[in-house]
Design a protein that fits this description.
- One of its GO terms (biological process) is regulation of nitrogen utilization.
- GO terms for molecular function: ATP binding; enzyme regulator activity.
- It comes from Dysgonomonas gadei ATCC BAA-286.
- Keywords: Nitrogen fixation, Transcription, Transcription regulation.
- The protein has 107 residues and is of the alpha+beta class.
- The protein has a single domain, classed as Alpha-Beta Plaits (2-Layer Sandwich).
- It contains two helices and eight strands.
- It has a four-stranded antiparallel beta sheet, covered by helices on one side. Strands 3-4 form a two-stranded antiparallel sheet. Strands 7-8 form a two-stranded antiparallel ribbon.
- Strand 3 and strand 4 form a beta hairpin.
- The protein is elongated.
- The mean pLDDT is 90.
Length: 107
């Protein structure tokens, strides 16, 4: 199994979550976060906003679904045809073990 963490613009997260649900991936954890990427924040006039609001979406998937899920997230989260700075980032890491708390079942 894999853990996908996608950092996306807050206005894009409902679209990403809807598209994942429609694609058969309903289980998503969403957190509101603040941070900055390579663009180092946003400068408006003389004011620099160092920390920008983002949403962190966390999804556990089977390895065979990786490319499909990544493409779904990119298509849903990207701004316009070419995208732009601040659209987000996707991180993928392996999951060693999972347990269902209610049943104590190791999966």
């Amino acid at each position: 199994m894999l853990l996908i963490r996608a950092i996306v613009r807050p206005e894009k997260s409902p679209v990403v979550m809807k598209d994942l649900f429609n694609a058969g991936f309903p289980a998503v954890t969403k957190l509101s976060v603040f941070g900055r990427g390579k663009q180092r924040g946003l400068k408006v006039g003389n004011v620099t906003y160092d920390e920008l609001p983002k949403d962190l979406l966390i999804i556990a998937i089977n390895e065979k679904d990786k490319e499909f899920v990544v493409e779904t997230i990119i298509a849903s989260a990207r701004s316009g045809e070419k995208g732009q700075a601040g659209d987000g980032k996707i991180f993928i890491t392996p999951i060693e073990e999972t347990y269902t708390i209610s049943s104590r079942k190791k999966e």
